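Hi R.,

Here's the chain you asked about this morning:
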Amino acid sequence: MSTQISAQMVNELRKITGAGLMKCKKALVETNGNVEEATTILRKQGEADTAKKSQREAKEGVIESYIHLGGKVGVLIEVNCETDFVARNDDFKAFVKDICLHIAAVNPTAVNREKVPEDLVAAEREIAMAQAEGKPPMAVQKIVEGKLEKFFAQSVLLDQPFVKNPDQTIRELIAATIQKTGENIQIRRFTRYQLGA
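And the predicted structure, written out as tokens:
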């Protein structure tokens, strides 16, 4: 016997996942009304959809500025999407503002690992090697890798926990926004200014 899927159940699942109405209804039917299982199905589909969408070209978007702390910190950012329609969407604008706020608060070094200056990575590697001195060679390698991983998690924007929701990384926030808008979204570049720094 199958469970009757109500509009309220579909709306509840839609709020949780950000997926479309028909996808939510289909997932609920498939799981016989089990919201938890339907959420898992939609998350898996969303990750697959996000991966496909991330291959598409994103040439539209916005350049946004943000001034924080009474003019002591400022951020200038370029975030791209596929169409002008999404660039003017309120959800997209709120997403860009949130990213600006995060950058102002956390001060990341680069958007992704590839854009972290090599001299910074080399300096961190050297510090980690010095701290691991005297340990067995296999332990040194693991210690250095662990410290570099921690360095990247702290300095790379996409790997950082989102300042408004530490349970979610910026990468996951982007994926959720891609799901919501249906378009590829990329943070192209940013600059953070701080008075006296």
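The chain has eight helices and five strands.

Let me know if you need anything else.
M.
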